[in-house]
Amino acid sequence: MSSHPDKNHPFETGLPALSTPERGGPSSSPDAAAMYELQRAAESVLQLATQTHAAVARSDTAGAQVLRASLEKQLTWTTRLIDEMLFGGTGQTTMH
């Protein structure tokens, strides 16, 4: 058994695989559309985190800083989307 990490799966999230029927696009229901938007936002967070990781690994400080700023903005937006879905814009947040 190798002690090297699996390069095909750099992040282990522990989340179940997605198997949503609207995978190719949102369906007509508002809940499905919101879930589709959340899925796209989450995929963007993961992509930016992966790109940031790669920039740090290759010692690209400037690139890592730009990507980190983008990641922070995307994560903030995604968290707001989650809050809106969970709390319906009541002012409660998942942020501390």
Overall description:
- Mean pLDDT is 79; it is low at 19-23.
- The protein has 96 residues and is an all-alpha fold.
- The protein contains two helices and no strands.
- The chain has a domain at 28-87.
What is the helix tally? 2
Query: Unreliable stretches, pLDDT < 50, 5 or more residues?
Result: 19-23
Q: Output the structural class.
A: mainly alpha
How much of the polypeptide forms β-strand, as a percent range? under 5%
Shape: elongated
**Helix content percent band:** 55-70%
Topology at a glance:
Blueprint: H1 30-57, H2 61-87
Core attributes:
57% helix; single chain; mainly alpha; 96 residues
Concise synopsis of the structure shown:
The chain contains two helices and no strands.
